[in-house]
Amino acid sequence: MPAIGSIQLPEFPLLLAPMEDVSDPPFRAVCKDNGADLMYSEFISSEGLIRDAIKSKKKLDFTEEERPFGIQIFGGDEEAMAMSARICETVNPDLVDINFGCPVKKVVSKGAGAGVLKDIDLMVRLTEAVIKSTKLPVTIKTRLGWDDNTKNIEEVAQRMQDIGVQAISIHGRTRAQLYKGEADWTLIGKVKNNPRITIPVFGNGDIDSPQKAKAYKEKYGIDGIMIGRAAIGYPWIFREIKHFLNTGEILPAPTLEERVAVCKKHLDRSIDWKGPIVGINEMRRHYTNYLKGLPGIKDFRMKLVTLTTPEAINEVLDEISEHYKNYSFERTPIELIDYHQNCPL
Ligand SMILES: Cc1cc2nc3c(=O)[nH]c(=O)nc-3n(C[C@H](O)[C@H](O)[C@H](O)COP(=O)(O)O)c2cc1C
């Protein structure tokens, strides 16, 4: 069974990917309920943490029920990364993860995120600085390389393991690809099957169904799978994959009761964590996904996204339960959105 330092994970762990503006505590709560085995914060700027920026500090929040839990940091300066790892340690997460995969220009131009894939020595120095500054296990999340000509993940994995990184998650795309094309897991499989690599290797990219998860598990031999976009609006993906791996059966689509219950819990946690105004506001983008597939849901949805009190929203959710009580859901394929479609390279 894979372990990260002293964190023992189940046999084939499913990880919730760190996602800026998505993987916050309310969303993580519903993913945990549905079987996510290891979860991460949104990425946090090391400079922001040091400056004590409110937004960065807020991202350190997590609850005991979320464990094992990792905080992800990014940055291009060794001292800032070391200091921010020490700040992370004060809130006692289970591990610190370093983001070496973010492709956006304002991050890579500072030598952070996927920017380091052009300079592995810098990547090593940044990682060593973090490892030396904390007693927590340090993991990394990265991509295959900078572009098609520099797919250096095999070298990266070895050098990271040599300096003490305790697990690696690999998104099967290069920085230049952003989200284009299909994630290529061939190199992820090569890293995993390199006899020198003994740390857990988690595969990431485009997993959106139990069948694909099983096929990739078998084909590439990875230690676990990290799931990002497929979980957005569909936290049930974790339990579906687990059930399929354990039994070979596809679970029926989540019921209306489950969908409404997830909406209510997510809303409740959002309000707890962000306060009523922001909590209610930010929850508005989630209803469409959670209630996808219900015929004629538009009018209800309009109410959900305009109401301003939890009582009124919960009442509409109860009306939805009543209105659709005899409706049986089909599992509709999950659509993986290209989030960086308009991202300047
Ligand atoms: C909205 C969004 C925000 C993301 N933010 C982060 C982040 O903060 N840190 C990180 O390492 N990756 C981030 N990613 C990348 C995901 O963790 C993941 O590597 C990528 O989406 C591929 O996995 P998927 O095909 O399962 O979505 C983000 C992705 C999305 C869609």
TrEMBL record:
Pfam families: Dus
Keywords, alphabetical: Flavoprotein, FMN, NADP, Oxidoreductase, RNA-binding, tRNA processing, tRNA-binding
EC numbers, comma separated: 1.3.1.-
Keyword tRNA processing applies: yes
GO MF assignments: oxidoreductase activity
Enzyme kind, highest EC tier: oxidoreductase
Limits of the DUS-like FMN-binding domain: 15-318
CDD domains registered for this protein in UniProt: DUS_like_FMN (cd02801)
Catalytic activity: a 5,6-dihydrouridine in tRNA + NAD(+) = a uridine in tRNA + NADH + H(+); a 5,6-dihydrouridine in tRNA + NADP(+) = a uridine in tRNA + NADPH + H(+)
InterPro entries, alphabetized: Aldolase_TIM (IPR013785), DUS-like_FMN-bd (IPR035587), DUS_fam (IPR001269), DusB-like (IPR004652), tRNA-dHydroUridine_Synthase_C (IPR024036), tRNA_hU_synthase_CS (IPR018517)
Necessary cofactors: FMN
Function: Catalyzes the synthesis of 5,6-dihydrouridine (D), a modified base found in the D-loop of most tRNAs, via the reduction of the C5-C6 double bond in target uridines.
PANTHER family xref list: TRNA-DIHYDROURIDINE(47) SYNTHASE [NAD(P)(+)]-LIKE (PTHR45846)
Family statement: Belongs to the dus family.
Protein name as annotated: tRNA-dihydrouridine synthase
Source species of the chain: Ferruginibacter yonginensis
